[in-house]
Specification:
17 strands; 5-stranded mixed sheet; alpha/beta; 439 residues; 8-stranded mixed β-barrel; binds ligand C2E; binds calcium ion; elongated
């Protein structure tokens, strides 16, 4: 009896140490043991490892609180277990990371079927504590092969596949192959370079004039556009690194640098020129914009009315409360808000009604067709009159010819930007040295 009791006690201790208290799934410690056993037995019983990472879990945890986050994790665990065979093992490795060891049907297509099924199931809404929660999952899979011979290599391979799945926009699965090493290496190097660039003064701002069409193309301010002066690759345009910065979160320090530099450089000028700074949706979703702007205004001494924040409508789409709060805070500071690239996305008119917007930038694609496509002209005309009716300022982007400029002026568009009036140029070319107090 005593021996039986001791055994039971030992089993309890073992289970406590090897099970995750919240989801009752085996934990990381159990995973480390079991994966080694599977690697040894792989010849007779091949298996696949899937690493599963939840998308947007952190945001939900932050928004709804930890109790809801915990319930969601339990629901995820239950859904994962229900989606696999009894012979497969689901683990919770920690946080919002899960793993699956799949033993049956591991031919590579079988593995992909399971991985895709997991992605699909995780994208379906979870009903938790009266909330309808939308998350998703990225999955990276790998099996034992000649170049992935052991448990350490297997984990690394699945991790690489997961990293690529995530960087390809999340909600997808990837299975490891040898070429992935090269692709990930390149990306990681770029990410690392960008991190160093933000710290090491490799970024610079170019300024493009904004002009009043109804006042003889008088310049009233500038849009700040970031560039990366890479030591080997030369000047890199933002199109080549902003997305990477957004995916890696580096957009936060990058955006802060841009905001501070733009405010400082403009504040050093005696005239009343305005400056427009592009702020990414990711910065708004992180909730850091209002404080960042306030810091930059205080540090530079720039009057808030001289600063304009350019936003894109993609961030308005979901009606995110955090985004709305920050827009309201910016407005309260006296900063202007411009809606960028209007006409390309959903262009929902409700945004114009609902959000505190001061000006609307009409996308270059419409301006480019002015004079050649009557429909594009009709659209520009309609946007201009609607925007004016709402007491906002219409700004035409990408004006390249005098004909476009005249056409826009005739349509009542008051502001414009484009190569016709000036290309983006470094501060030293726009403002003579004696006018620049900034070193
Ligand atoms: P955007 O905000 O729509 O900026 C206008 C882009 O159009 C700029 O490209 C500008 O150089 C270009 N452009 C201006 N006038 C003309 C024209 O007449 N013709 C043509 N063909 N192009 C013209 P750029 O500098 O390469 O920037 C690309 C995008 O990168 C920007 O589009 C903006 O979305 C983003 N970006 C730039 N700087 C920042 C930044 O500091 N933060 C963030 N989050 N995004 C930035
Ligand atoms: Ca812009
Ligand atoms: Ca634009």
């Amino acid at each position: 009896r005593v021996v039986a009791q001791q055994r039971r006690h030992l089993r309890q201790v073992f289970e406590l140490a090897h099970n995750d208290a919240l989801t009752k799934l085996p934990n990381r410690l159990a995973f480390q043991k079991i994966i080694k056993e599977h690697v040894s037995a792989n010849e007779t019983q091949p298996f696949l490892l899937h690493l599963i990472d939840l998308d947007r879990f952190k945001a939900i945890n932050d928004t709804f609180g930890h109790p809801v986050g915990d319930l969601l994790l339990s629901a995820v665990a239950a859904r994962l277990k229900a989606a696999v065979r009894p012979t497969d093992i689901v683990f919770r490795l920690g946080g919002d990371e899960f793993a699956l060891i799949q033993t049956g049907g591991t031919a590579s297509d079988g593995g992909q079927i399971v991985a895709r099924r997991i992605c699909r199931l995780m994208a379906e809404p979870f009903e938790v504590a009266g909330h309808r929660l939308l998350i998703g999952a990225s999955v990276g899979s790998a099996g034992i092969t000649a170049d992935v011979p052991d448990a350490i290599g297997l984990l690394k391979a699945a991790d690489i596949a997961l990293y690529l799945a995530k960087s390809e926009g999340r909600g997808t699965s990837r299975e490891y192959n040898a070429e992935m090493n090269v692709a990930v290496g390149r990306r990681l190097r770029l990410e690392n370079d960008l991190r160093l660039a933000i710290e090491g003064e490799q970024l610079e701002l170019h300024y493009q004039p904004k002009v009043r069409l109804d006042q003889g193309a008088r310049t009233t301010g500038y849009e700040a556009l970031v560039r990366w002066r890479h030591p080997e690759r030369g000047l890199i345009p933002p199109g080549d690194f902003i997305l990477l910065a957004e995916e890696t979160g580096l957009i936060v320090p990058l955006g802060e640098w841009v905001m501070q530099r733009a405010c400082r450089e403009l504040a050093a000028r005696a005239d009343a020129m305005t400056v427009a700074v592009n702020v990414s949706a990711v910065q708004f979703k992180r909730g850091v914009v209002a404080e960042m702007v306030q810091r930059a205004l205080i540090l530079s001494g720039l009057h808030p009315s001289r600063l304009e924040v350019e936003i894109t409508e993609s961030m308005l789409m979901k009606g995110d409360a955090l985004v709305e709060e920050q827009l309201a805070a910016l407005r309260a500071l006296g900063v202007h808000i411009a809606l960028d690239d209007f006409g390309t996305g959903y262009s929902s008119l409700s945004y114009l009604e609902r959000y505190p917007i001061d000006s609307v930038k009409i996308d270059r694609s419409f301006v480019a067709k002015l004079g050649t496509a009557p429909r594009a002209a009709a659209i520009v005309k309609a946007i201009v009159s609607l925007v004016c009716e709402l007491d906002m300022v219409p700004v035409a982007e990408g004006v390249e010819t005098p004909e476009q400029s005249a056409h826009l002026e005739a349509l009542g568009c008051t502001m414009a930007q484009g190569y016709l009036f000036g290309r983006p140029k470094p501060a030293c070319e726009i403002w003579p040295a004696e006018e620049r107090a900034v070193a």
